[in-house]
């Protein structure tokens, strides 16, 4: 996935080399703090920083023997540093490094994701404004309901994506914690001031209370925020797919001049990008379940979460960023067939105005059930005989006793249904 990915900077955050660079930086800043508070000689941090480094091949070779990634890493760094390397990792435990470094990786990945969400919001806003008054059929249960506008449809997704961004920001902030509290979180071998120093210098917050690890509800909230946001993007993709169906054809994914839709049928233009978004959203929801399974661990820590997180954090952030790229491209280049929207709306021959007609009769003094049956009687003629509802109503002797011709005409006016679009747009900030 990383090799084929459109934005290599996201994949680069999760490479083995970059991960070890984060580990090394946490160790080096911890050395500074240890020197600051008298645990090691003050001249050690600059001497170690000048020599510190690692060779991935060496780390892997050592790990084959010791079966422990942090120990292998520390041994490889110590070889580069020499005798002063004995101070590296003084009083610390593996998860001090692992959890703090992971927080840095997540922070960097989150910046890219937030930028992607902002870009999608701009694309949705642009489509919403462009089609603010583009009338189309509203559909409930897949059946024509009352008229809406395509702008309103896009505004719904704009607002939902705004909420996704807010939730993700909160989850990303919840991941911005480090810990340097030792083997079981008691600071037995390092002063809490060491942790405060390290976290402040790295741009993190110190975990208020930890065991050997930072508790995994933070991590589950983060992955779940991605999965929930992806579900909203799948919802958008599914709507576009439905509107692209041949018998609907109100919108369409952009289809380039050299693109081909089917190996067998040259006419095909399939919504393949939206289908890819929908498929990947399923994968992200699976990762959310895995993240929640990681919350419950034995005593102060076991290792069952570790192998899972090595997969779900790189995959979730890379996949979600990719999904954002895909759906934003679709929205930005969406082909909108306004004439088909109107034509499809009129296929129901005016039945979308049935509630307005019902209310007009009630206002005249009829009880609801009587008025309902009168309108339903006219609608039956539309279903069975294909006449226009407006014509059926104007010929209905009982309705004509209650409504004048101009009052009926007013009921069958699309503007009646879009008169509050401006108010709705203001409420969502468009």
Descriptive overview:
This protein has 430 residues and is mostly helical. It folds into three domains: 1-90, Orthogonal Bundle (Fumarase C, Chain B, domain 1); 92-342, Fumarase/aspartase (Central domain) (Fumarase C, Chain A, domain 2, Up-down Bundle); 351-411, Fumarase/aspartase (C-terminal domain) (Ribonucleotide Reductase Protein R1, domain 1). It is 64% helix and 5% strand. The chain has 19 helices and six strands. It has a two-stranded antiparallel sheet. β1 (135-140) and β2 form a beta hairpin. α2 (16-36) runs antiparallel to α3, α2 packs across α8 (192-202) and α9 packs antiparallel against α10 (272-293). The radius of gyration is 30 Å and the shape is elongated. It starts with 7 loop residues before the first helix and ends with a helix. The mean pLDDT is 94.
């Amino acid at each position: 996935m990383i090799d084929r990915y459109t934005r290599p900077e996201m994949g680069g955050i999760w490479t083995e080399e970059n991960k070890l660079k984060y580990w090394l930086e946490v160790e080096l800043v911890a050395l500074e703090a240890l020197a600051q508070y008298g645990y090691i000689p003050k001249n050690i941090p600059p001497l170690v920083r000048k020599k510190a480094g690692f060779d991935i091949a060496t780390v892997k070779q050592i790990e084959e023997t010791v079966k422990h990634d942090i120990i292998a890493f520390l041994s490889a760094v110590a070889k580069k540093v020499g005798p002063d390397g004995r101070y590296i990792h003084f009083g610390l435990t593996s998860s001090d490094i692992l959890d703090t470094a992971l927080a840095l990786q997540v922070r960097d990945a989150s910046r890219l994701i937030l930028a992607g969400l902002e870009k999608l919001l701009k694309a949705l806003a642009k489509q919403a404004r462009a089609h603010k008054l583009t009338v189309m059929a509203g559909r409930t249960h897949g059946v024509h309901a009352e008229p809406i506008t395509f702008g309103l449809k896009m505004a719904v997704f704009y607002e939902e994506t705004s909420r996704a961004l807010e939730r993700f920001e909160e989850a990303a902030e919840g991941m911005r914690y480090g810990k340097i509290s030792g083997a079981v979180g008691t600071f037995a071998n390092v002063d809490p001031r060491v942790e405060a120093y390290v976290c402040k210098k790295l741009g993190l917050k110190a975990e208020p209370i930890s065991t050997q690890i930072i508790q995994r509800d933070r991590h589950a909230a983060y992955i779940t925020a991605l999965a929930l946001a992806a579900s909203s993007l799948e919802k958008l993709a599914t709507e576009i797919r439905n509107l692209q169906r041949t018998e609907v054809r109100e919108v369409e994914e952009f289809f380039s001049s050299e693109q081909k839709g089917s190996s067998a049928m040259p006419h095909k233009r399939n919504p393949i990008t939206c289908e890819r978004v929908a498929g990947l959203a399923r994968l992200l929801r699976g990762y959310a379940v895995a993240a929640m399974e990681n919350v419950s661990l034995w005593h102060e820590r076991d290792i069952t979460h570790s192998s899972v997180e090595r997969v779900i954090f790189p995959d979730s952030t890379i996949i979600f960023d990719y999904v954002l790229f895909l759906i934003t491209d679709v929205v930005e280049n969406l082909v909108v067939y306004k004439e088909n929207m109107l034509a499809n709306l009129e296929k129901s021959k005016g039945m979308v105005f049935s509630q307005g007609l019902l209310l007009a009769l009630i206002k005249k003094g009829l009880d609801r059930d009587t008025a309902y049956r009168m309108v339903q009687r006219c609608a039956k003629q539309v279903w069975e005989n294909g006449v226009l509802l407006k014509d059926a109503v104007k010929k209905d002797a009982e309705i004509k006793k209650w409504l004048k011709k101009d009052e009926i005409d007013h009921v069958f006016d699309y503007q009646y249904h879009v008169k509050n679009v401006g108010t709705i747009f203001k409420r969502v900030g468009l």
